[in-house]
Amino acid sequence: MSGPATVLIVSDIHHAGAAERERRGYEIACAPNWPLRLLMRAYRGHVWLRDPLGNGKFLDAFLHRSGSPDFVITNGDFSADSRFVGVSDDAALASATECLAKLRTKFGEKLHATIGDHELGKMSLVGGHGGLRLASWPRTTGGLGLHPFWRHEWGSYVFMGVTSTLLALPIYEREMLVAERAEWESLRAAHLDEVRAAFARLSPHQRVLLFCHDPTALPFLSRVREVRDRLGQIEATVIGHLHSELVLRTGHVLSGMPMIPFLGVSVRRMSTGLKEAKLWRPFNVRLCPSLTGIQLLKDGGWLTVELDRDARHLAKFRFHPLPWSNVHQPLTCTNQH
Prior knowledge:
Helix content is 34%, strand content 15%. With 337 residues, it is of the alpha/beta class.
């Protein structure tokens, strides 16, 4: 390929297969009392996503409208994770397998996939259910065929994908089982070695497109000397996780807020990440929203990036909205490029 290239980026698909679709109301069921159940219903129904198990039609609509890009990056979170323990749950594994099968059938060897937090597990927003489970790791890396760190070169560009949960593991300390902590730390150390080596061997002319699911990991990356020394070569860091530009803008506003230790593990995790959100800036963050966006704005979609092989011009990002009304229309394959 001698000319320019188009990179398509999609994130937070959260596909639910048949077994997960049987678990309607799974989040509200975690609430320990009726006031929290009412709050969760209002939050889900009006702000975040009323039907978190109904994303399959958005995936199908995206696949029909995605065109013929040169490279495809999917930036994590392939299942609904309705037991909050990642793909150690058989139903979540089946959902993620089905999702990735559809992506691989469509895009083949063009596809590069990053690991999200829901592949490995994270505690429920209320009730303290679930968390990181070591059993999810071999299912993610072996069963799903996802690489903790991946790297691909094209012209003067180097694409890199990292596992945000491993990088930000100290924040997840209260969400892992005590007996599994040492093994998680070992996996993190090995991952950091891969990251250090990849950044250390960058040539001065190379530009990096970094793919990191959760921006909470970026302050930890900034403490890695090999990364810090080459921050100027990171043209863009594409994140997912936040689902909507509204959430990203809110994160910038709340940057530097103190950690909140008394409202549960999830709030503690999120506030700890926001405390250091000012350190996201040198990474040139770009959000790829979820395909659905959030219920309040219905602002989902995907990104494409136009790249010049010699990196003489900056990467050109374009957002492709996926209006909810279009999801219910007859699907016809269109070429975006």
